[in-house]
Amino acid sequence: GGTIRLGAWPCSLKKGSKLGSAYRHFGSQKSSPWHQSNDLNKKINNKLLTIFERHRHRYEFNNDYRSQFEKAGLVISGTSPDGKLVEAVEITNHPFFLATQFHPEYISRLFNPHPIFMAFIEATKKNK
């Protein structure tokens, strides 16, 4: 007990996920805080694989139930680079169901809004 995860941590995005699509579509600015200079920030064919997001929590996803959640339709769309920590989940057949362990509001700015917020606004416009 008594542990807390603070600060920026890497998150590897699942190819084809809503989360990955949000960062590719709305988060490609190189000056954005989720593009930290680090060996983990790898790019293949200009597609972002790893982003960095800020955390402030003591709780983690319980991997004992991971396969059951995935069988029921929950998509693990973001993990730590080693795949052990679940950073984000989503439901594919929902207009916009995306949950993150990190806090996108911490680094969202007026003239550089967070990609998740922009993707949410786009989804609401499509699903009036």
Describe what you observe in this structure.
By secondary structure, this protein is α+β, with helices and mostly antiparallel strands. The chain has 3 helices and 7 strands. The protein has helices spanning 18-26, 66-71, 115-126; strands spanning 5-13, 43-44, 47-48, 50-57, 74-79, 86-91, 97-100. It has a 5-stranded antiparallel β-sheet with strand order 4-1-5-6-7. Strands 2-3 form a two-stranded antiparallel sheet. A hairpin with a 2-residue loop joins strand 2 (43-44) and strand 3. Helix 1 crosses helix 3. 23% of the residues are buried. The model has no long low-confidence stretch (mean pLDDT 86).
What are the defining features of this structure?
single chain; five-stranded antiparallel sheet; 21% helix; two-stranded antiparallel sheet; 128 residues; 3 helices; alpha+beta; globular
- Overall shape: it is globular
Helix-strand pattern:
EHEEEHEEEH
Task: Quickly give the structural class.
Answer: alpha+beta
Question: In which range does the helix fraction lie?
Answer: 10-25%
Summarize the main sheet. Answer: 5 strands, antiparallel
Beta content comes to 25-35%
Task: Identify low-pLDDT runs.
Answer: none
Strand order of the largest sheet: 4-1-5-6-7
| Amino-to-carboxy terminus distance | 44 Å
Chain-averaged pLDDT: 86
Number of helices: 3
